Every structure is written in structure tokens, then in C-alpha cells.
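$ fold --in a.seq
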Amino acid sequence: MVRKTKQYPFLLLLVITLSACSNQKPRAINIGEDNCAYCKMGITDNRFSSELITSKGKVYKFDAVECLAAFYNNADPTVKDNAKLWVHDFLNPDKWLSVNTAIFMKSEKISSPMALHLLAVSSDSEMVRIQQEFDGEQIRWKDLLNYVNENMK
């Protein structure tokens, strides 16, 4: 009986620790209340907003894909390590996309908050639709990071 009571606190601590580490789902953006962790502007348009969640669960919110990319480019390796990066789907602004599955576009006809003209969508068919409307070019995440590094002021 004594053995079981000694194991209970350990198991409880283990469950709490594991649940805290796995909680890397995006949090809601509070439009008009949250500020961008990179540029400090208020977040006003969910179509462009994004988040980075560290492996320890710290959440950084951004007003634009380019702010997420600039922050990531300059982040300490401990922040980047196993971080989850999320962007909103431009056509479905309530839908979160991982940067690993999102399809990015750059178009001069898009007015993103930091004026680098970037957006994300979730599928090839959405990309075709958005390209027809805004005449943009698809850009991979790796290339987007380089583009932001060269063009963010």
C-alpha cells in the first residue's frame, strides 16, 4: 500500500509534464487586442496573422506572415528548436495551417500588414483561385524566409 502512494505523485507529475509539452496548438488571435511580437503593431486582420509556439509552450503572435518569418530568422536557436509555426488561411481566416503544409504566395496586389505582399492558403486549388484573382507567384517557406530576410526593414 505504501508503494502505491509514493508512485501517485510521480505519475501525476509525469502526466502534467507530458500534457504541457504537447500543447502546441495555435491560440486564438484577439483582433484589436493582441499585438505583433515582432513589429509591435496591433493585429487587425486574421487573413495574415500567424503564431510561433515554442517547445515549452510560449506563444508569439504576429500580424503578418512576414513578421513571423522575420522573427523566426532572428530567433535564438532555443526558441526555434521544435517550435510550431502557424499561419491563417487567407481564404478561410478562421482556419490555422502549419507552415509545413501551407502554400504561400507573393503578390503585389495583396496589401499585407508589413507590405511584403505575402499570404498563405491550404491547397493547390485555393492557390490557383487566388492566383487568378491576384496574379501572384507561389513561394516555398524556405524561399519566403530568404525573401523576408532580404526585404524586411
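$ fold --in b.seq
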Amino acid sequence: MPGVDVRKYSENMRDQSKSSLEEMRKMVRAWVGATDLAYHKMVAELRDLEARNRVQVEKLQKQARKLNREEVSKQVKETYDDLAKRGEEVIHDLRTRPQTRLVFTRTEKTLKSAERKLRDAEHKVEEADHRVTGKGNKKPAAHK
């Protein structure tokens, strides 16, 4: 009875299709549900965020009213000193690394050369000023 086998096969295929279709619908509903849940959580979080920010701003404003100029100045100085110390440590660490030691050596030589050139330029300006105006040091300072 080949007709019976085809009928059963057809019924099985229809049932499987319905089942697959229902499973696909369920997946779509789950996706929509997850999206809705995420949206509502985000809205609640944003609503709470506004309230938390308002509380934090009020707290900071109260603290700001309590501060006086000396305290703020002291805090700024302490922070500045801490940053300078941190920078000193970083520079020390960099100087001890072989790959950066050469850069620091060259930089120091360049700075010393620039200082010499600046002193020479100042000396020449003083000499020129003395020659033009006759004022200033009678004898220009010796070249260093």
C-alpha cells in the first residue's frame, strides 16, 4: 500500500512544518520580549541615573560651600607636588632604560648648548647697547 505511506509521510511533513513554524514564531516572540525587557531596564536606569546625579551634585555643592580658599590652595599645592614627584620618578625610570638614555643625554647637551648661545647673545646685546648708547657697563662681561 504505497498510498498509505505517502499519506503518512505527508502528515508527518505537515506536523513538522507546523512545529518548525511555531518554533520560529516563539523565537521571534522571545527576541521581541528580550528587546522590550532591555528597553524597560534602560529607561529605569536612566531615570535612576538622573536621581543619582542630582544627589551627587547636591553633595558636591555642599562640600564646595564648606571649602575655603586656604583649603583649596593647600589641596592644589599637594596635588601639584604629587604630580611633580610622580613625573620625577617617571623621568628617573626613563633615564635608566638603555633605549631612552641616549635621548636624555642628547637633550641635555642640546639644552646646555642653547644656554651657552643665550648667554653669548645676551653678552653681544650688552656690548652693542654699550657701543650705541655709551651707557651700561664700562667693560663688557667676559665670555664664559
